[in-house]
Design brief:
The complex is a heterodimer of chains A (254) and B (482).
Chain A: E1 2-11, E2 14-24, E3 29-33, H1 40-48, E4 53-62, E5 65-66, H2 72-77, E6 80-83, E7 90-94, H3 95-109, H4 117-130, E8 141-142, H5 148-162, E9 166-170, H6 178-191, E10 197-202, E11 215-220, E12 223-228, H7 231-239, H8 242-253
Chain B: H1 2-14, E1 27-29, H2 36-45, H3 50-63, E2 88-90, H4 104-112, E3 126-132, E4 135-139, H5 142-147, E5 151-154, H6 155-161, H7 163-169, H8 180-188, E6 193-197, E7 206-212, E8 223-228, E9 233-241, E10 248-251, E11 254-259, E12 264-271, E13 283-294, E14 300-307, E15 312-315, E16 318-321, E17 327-336, E18 341-350, E19 356-365, E20 370-379, E21 387-396, E22 402-411, E23 417-426, H9 429-437, H10 442-458, H11 463-476
Parallel strand pairs in B: 3-7, 6-8, 7-9, 8-11, 9-12, 10-13, 11-13, 12-14, 13-15, 13-16, 14-17, 15-18, 16-18, 17-19, 18-20, 19-21, 20-22, 21-23
Antiparallel strand pairs in B: 1-2, 3-4, 5-6
Helix pairs in contact in B: 2-3, 3-8, 6-7, 9-10, 10-11
């Protein structure tokens, strides 16, 4: 599904991602962990097509296509979803209107007729229940005045509405209390299908108690320094990132 | 990405003004120029009584002593008032009673504008007074309205048929000495709409005056007089368009509203005069005086305006809150794109006790557009318990446009509560990216965000107008982000 080869990217001339290679197959859940400043969010931005991150080297292939050449909205229409670390407020634009525009754009892309108002509202109702989101939220403006937890739940709600092939969740767990964390994680698990994939970017292990990854990568200083199964997350939780840093430092010395 | 942005910019350049066509209609014009003879000619053509001619001449003589005001935050090129035709009328009997009397070309024009003159074809529940250049060509549903005693007709007809009402109210809210453009209008106005809602009547349909400038080198000077008697209600709409031309054309109108005890008038405008081209060539100068008097207790006037057109807009729909407990409202969205300029706002004059006013102004600037909000909240000595809330928001698209706010607050009563809130924001790249990431194109994202920003005002419009206004906002800002 997604193949990243030797990816390097910089922001304002400063190299942040220093050569990442990674393959995500359909149905897999990958966790990318790492200390602050390791390049986790920059990687998410590059995959979603945010302009501020400039790709200097490497390739990203998505279902055989060159992802880096696609406009952000085309990536979205092809099934890439980014759960934002800091969801954006759009005053005056209702969630209903926002989601209806997004869903129908994606349908148009797939050659489908736009949903009728009643079908759309029915879909919203179903998805709201699925992710246990307050039904009043839909009548409010996009993220405006939402609490931190509501914003994150709203991201998962949008994910449920758009049914992406590849969801990239950028620190979706940050700022969540344990109940909200459980709801968010349950939402992600319920949406999981054998053919879609998730990249979970997180600083802490606790989210991975609920979303069980197939693969865990540790990102440090712009490189993936360790890849293993889900037990790696627990090891990190126990030993902290210093252990990795030390490990990498020693390797570099050698 | 680069390619995409180019495409958006190209789309804009091709995004044309939809109503810029010209209709080849046989038109009677008087010679260019402005003097007492011209004014006598206009008055004679309209078969006016002497008192009205006197009113015109008095206004003209006063106007000659006046200078064009320079206080607005506008760059207005010099206007040669001798180079304007002050009367141009499609050749037909003014305000035809029978549809067959109307030039088919004229009917076609209004059909094209979406304002059919045939009653059965028209949007249900809207009565129309259609004004082309200097005259009203048709007023629909007159008979049905007359059944409840409502008068809705052209100003010229009103002068003939209801001279006492016109005489009693005309010039009482906007006196002929009021300001340069109002005084000019008082001297040369050619037509407009008149409306009287009798005591206790709730007008059963929306009333619409549609203004169309067609003829070249002419100015349009119409006046609207709207009287809502005690306990009555009316929702009044106004729309306007003009052909695309390289020259500027002057539109200087007057709207006067009088509202008696417990009556309410809702006045909505969607202003879409030709804005000029991308380089700022041509377009309408829209210099308009609109004012309502809440004369009675518990009376209410609500202005809603969506200003997307005109090269230059200079307009301050105002409320004089004379009756105790009367209410004034002003909801405005003003867009300036390319080289458009707008200096617009309102005046809320609190005279009566416990009078309330609300101002919500949303400016949107794009391209090299300059957008100014100018508003006065004045609380007089006896206006105990007066209350005002003002909110002025500015939204900027791009970095070559400007937003300016000039609020004036004058309070002479200690008990008054006056609040003013203002914000300036830009459409953020992160907002657009958030939309992009959900599959929404940049252009649609701008439309979505702008309509969201203006929603509070658009919601005040009647349904059909609201839909039209939303489309208009998107069209007038097409390609402004790139």
């Amino acid at each position: 599904m997604l193949v990243i080869k030797n990816l390097k990217a910089s922001i304002d001339g400063k190299t942040i991602i220093k050569g990442i290679s990674l393959e995500v197959k359909p149905g897999e859940i990958h966790a990318i962990m790492g200390p602050n400043g390791s390049g986790k969010s920059t990687l998410a931005a590059v995959l979603a097509g945010r302009e501020f991150a400039e790709v200097t080297e490497g390739t990203v292939t998505y279902f055989g296509k060159n992802l880096l050449e696609m406009a952000p909205e085309d990536r979205a229409k092809e099934g890439i979803f980014l759960g934002f670390q800091y969801p954006i407020e759009i005053p005056g634009v209702s969630m209903v209107n926002f989601m209806k525009t997004a869903v129908n754009e994606q349908r148009k892309h797939r050659g489908l007729e736009p949903l009728s108002a009643s079908d759309f509202l029915k879909m919203m109702r179903e998805k709201k229940e699925l992710v246990e989101i307050d039904s009043k939220l839909a009548n409010r403006s996009v993220n405006e005045g939402f609490s931190g937890g509501e914003k994150k739940k709203n991201e998962i709600f949008q994910m449920a509405m758009l049914e992406p092939k590849l969801a990239i969740l950028d620190e979706t767990d940050s700022g969540l209390d344990i109940d909200a964390l459980r709801i968010v994680a349950n939402g992600v698990n319920k949406l999981k299908r054998p053919d879609n994939s998730v990249i979970v970017i997180t600083h802490y292990q606790r989210l991975l108690d609920y979303i069980i990854p197939d693969v865990v990568h540790v990102l440090y200083d712009g490189r993936i320094v360790k890849t293993a199964g889900k037990e790696l997350a627990l090891e990190l939780e126990e030993k902290g990132y210093d252990w990795i840093k030390k490990d990498v430092g020693e390797n570099n010395l050698k | 990405m680069e390619k995409d942005q180019d495409k958006i910019i190209n789309d804009v350049t091709s995004g044309e003004y939809k109503y810029g066509f010209y209709s080849d209609i046989e038109t009677e014009r008087i010679p260019k120029g402005l003097n007492e003879d011209i004014i006598r000619t206009i008055s004679r053509k309209k078969g006016e009584p002497d008192w009205l001619l006197e009113f015109r001449l008095k206004s003209f003589r006063h106007w000659q002593t006046m200078k064009m005001p320079g206080w607005a935050n506008l760059k207005i090129p010099p206007i040669n008032y001798q180079d304007i035709i002050y009367y141009a009328a499609p050749k037909q009997k003014a305000s035809a009673e029978n549809l067959d009397d109307i030039d088919p070309e004229l009917k076609k024009t209004f059909d094209k504008l979406g304002i059919p003159l045939e009653e059965q074809k028209h949007l249900t529940g809207v009565a129309v007074d259609a004004v082309m250049d200097s005259v009203s060509v048709k007023t629909t549903f007159k008979e049905i309205l007359a059944e409840s005693g409502i008068i809705f007709c052209s100003f010229s007809d009103a002068v003939k048929e209801y001279p006492d009402l016109v005489k009693r109210y005309m010039g009482t809210v906007v006196p002929y000495t009021d300001n340069f453009f109002a005084t000019l209008n008082s001297a040369v106005f050619s037509d407009g709409s008149f409306c009287y809602i009798p005591k206790g009547v709730r007008c059963p349909m929306e009333l619409l005056t549609y203004f169309r400038i067609n003829s070249a080198n002419t100015g349009q000077f119409e006046r609207t007089l709207l009287v809502a008697d005690e306990e009555s209600y009316v929702s009044y709409l106004e729309g306007c368009t003009a052909p695309m031309r390289d020259e500027n054309q002057l539109h200087a109108a007057i709207v006067e509203i009088i509202v008696e005890n417990n009556a309410e008038v809702k006045y909505s405008t969607v202003q879409n005069w030709y804005p000029g081209d991308k380089e700022g060539k041509g377009g309408i100068f829209n210099f308009v005086t609109k004012r309502g008097l809440c004369r009675g207790e518990n009376s209410k006037i609500s202005w809603t305006q969506i200003e997307t057109g005109s090269a230059i807009t200079w307009k301050y729909p105002s409320c004089i809150l004379r009756g105790d407990n009367s209410t004034g409202e002003f909801y405005s969205v003003a867009v300036t794109n390319h080289h458009q300029q707008a200096d617009t706002g309102t005046k809320m004059i609190h005279i009566g006790k416990n009078t309330k006013s609300t101002i919500v102004s949303k400016g949107i600037s794009a391209g090299q557009g300059q957008n100014s909000y100018r508003g006065l909240v004045k609380v007089l000595k006896n206006a105990t318990g007066a209350r005002n809330f003002s909110q002025c928001d500015s939204l900027l698209l791009g970095d070559k446009c400007g937003a300016h706010t000039f609020p004036y607050i004058e309070v002479d009563n200690q008990t008054a509560i006056v609040e003013h809130e203002a914000t300036t924001s830009k459409i953020g790249e992160d907002q657009i990216f958030y939309c992009n990431q959900r599959g929404i194109s940049t252009e649609d994202a701008v439309g979505l965000i702008v309509n969201g920003y203006a929603r509070e005002v658009i919601n005040k419009l009647p349904m059909e107008f609201a839909v039209e206004a939303q489309k208009l906002l998107q069209i007038s800002l097409e390609g402004s982000v790139g």
